[in-house]
Design brief:
The protein folds into 2 domains: 228 residues, TIM Barrel (Alpha-Beta Barrel); 77 residues, no CATH class. Helices cover 43% and strands 15% of the residues. The protein starts with a helix and ends in a 6-residue tail after the last helix. The relative contact order is 0.14. The protein binds flavin mononucleotide.
Length: 323
C-alpha cells in the first residue's frame, strides 16, 4: 500500500492532492478526489464569497473526508478567508505570496497550512512562517508558476532545505510514474492540476478538456503578457507567470506587450467577460506540460486510483535496478 507520513498528517489514504484551481474546481470534483482517498482542494479564487459558501455547504454533504480550501495570497478576499476558517477544512492551501500572518490565523482555528512555492528561498520563508506542508512547484506546471526551474531540479533542493517539513511535488506529474518519481526525490505526495482538468467532474468547458487531450507539451507556453494585462495575482506575489495552451489571443498579444499594457483595461474586460461566459479557454486555457501525457477524460476518483496503482507497480518494479 502506498502511504507516506503526510497521509497521517492530513488524514488521507493516498498521497495525491488535486490542486486548488479557483473556479475551475467544484464541490463535486473535490468530493470525488477525497472520497477516492486523496485530498481534494476547493479553489477560492475567481469566485465570490457567496459562491464559496455554497460550494462548501455542498461539499460537506458529499464527503466526510479531509479536503483543502485554496486561497491566493495576492488577491485574498478577506470575507472568503473568514468563512473558510469557519468551515473548518482539514487544510488551507495558499499560493502566490508570503503566507505571513495567515498561517497563525489558520492554526488558531485548528487548521493546517500548505504553502505552494517555486524557489528554495520561498520554501525557506514558508518554513519560517510555520506552515505544515510545502508544495514545490516546477515550471512545467499549468497555471501560475516560476519561469525556469523544473520540478526535477527544484524538489530535492526544497526537501533538503525544509526537512522535516513534508514536501509535495507539483508540475509535470500526470501518472503513477510521476508520483513514484516524486517520492524517490524525497517528496511525500503530489499536487496535480492539469490531469484533473480533464476529469468528468471538473467544471470547465468541454472544449478545454478536448484541447488538453489533443495537445502536445510544446503547445503550452509561458504567457508573460498576461501579467502586463492583469498584474495580479502573478506579478504581485512570487513574481510568477502563467502557463497556458496557445490560442490566437496569446500568440497575438505576446508579440505586442507594450500595446497590451496600453490597452490593459479593454483586455481585462475581455478576459472578465470570457470568464463570466465560461469561455476563458478561447483566450487562455491554462494547462501544464503534462497535456502530452493525457489521452482520456476520466472520473476524478479513477484518476486517483490509477495514479496510486501505477505508482505501486512502478515502485515494485524499481527493485530490478538493484543488482
Ligand atoms: C487551470 C489552473 C488553475 C490553477 N489555479 C490555481 C489556484 O487558484 N491556486 C493554486 O494554488 N494553484 C493553482 N494552479 C496550480 C496548481 O496548484 C498546481 O501547482 C499545478 O497545476 C501543478 O502542475 P500540473 O498542472 O502540471 O499538474 C492552477 C493550475 C491550473 C492548471
Amino acid at each position: 500500500m502506498l502511504r507516506t507520513l503526510m497521509c497521517d498528517l492530513l488524514d488521507i489514504e493516498s498521497p495525491v492532492i488535486q490542486a486548488g484551481m479557483g473556479a475551475f474546481t467544484s464541490a463535486e470534483l473535490v468530493a470525488a478526489v477525497s472520497n477516492a482517498g486523496g485530498l481534494g482542494s476547493l479553489g477560492a479564487s475567481q469566485r465570490t464569497a457567496e459562491d464559496l459558501q455554497k460550494q462548501l455547504a455542498q461539499l460537506r454533504k458529499l464527503t466526510r473526508r479531509s479536503f483543502a480550501v485554496n486561497h491566493l495570497v495576492t488577491t485574498l478576499d478577506e470575507e472568503a478567508f473568514a468563512l473558510t476558517l469557519k468551515a473548518q477544512p482539514r487544510v488551507i492551501s495558499l499560493a502566490l505570496g508570503d503566507p505571513g500572518l495567515l498561517v497563525k490565523r489558520a492554526h488558531d482555528a485548528g487548521i493546517q497550512v500548505m504553502q505552494q512555492v517555486h524557489t528554495v528561498a520561498q520554501a525557506r520563508q514558508a518554513a519560517e512562517r510555520g506552515v505544515d506542508v510545502i508544495i514545490a512547484q516546477g515550471s512545467e506546471a499549468g497555471g501560475f508558476g516560476g519561469m525556469a526551474v523544473t520540478a526535477l531540479a527544484l524538489i530535492p533542493q526544497v526537501v533538503d532545505t525544509v526537512s522535516p517539513i513534508p514536501v509535495v511535488a507539483a508540475g509535470g506529474i500526470a501518472d503513477g510514474r510521476g508520483l513514484a518519481a516524486a517520492l524517490l526525490l524525497g517528496a511525500q505526495g503530489i499536487n496535480i492540476g492539469t490531469r484533473f482538468l480533464a476529469s468528468v467532474e471538473t467544471p470547465i468547458h468541454p472544449q478545454w478538456k478536448q484541447m488538453i487531450l489533443e495537445s502536445d507539451s510544446e503547445d503550452t507556453v509561458k504567457v508573460e503578457v498576461w501579467n502586463d494585462i492583469m498584474p495580479t495575482p502573478g506579478r504581485g506575489g512570487y513574481g510568477t507567470v502563467p502557463r497556458s495552451l496557445r490560442t490566437s489571443f496569446i500568440d497575438e498579444w505576446q508579440q505586442h506587450r507594450e500595446k497590451a499594457v496600453r490597452e490593459a483595461e479593454r483586455l481585462q474586460n475581455e478576459i472578465m467577460a470570457a470568464r463570466q461566459q465560461g469561455k476563458i479557454h478561447e483566450l487562455a486555457p491554462f494547462a501544464g506540460q503534462t497535456v502530452g501525457l493525457i489521452h482520456e477524460i476520466l472520473p476524478a476518483g479513477e484518476i486517483v486510483r490509477r495514479l496510486v496503482a501505477e505508482a505501486e507497480e512502478v515502485l515494485r518494479r524499481a527493485n530490478k535496478f538493484l543488482k
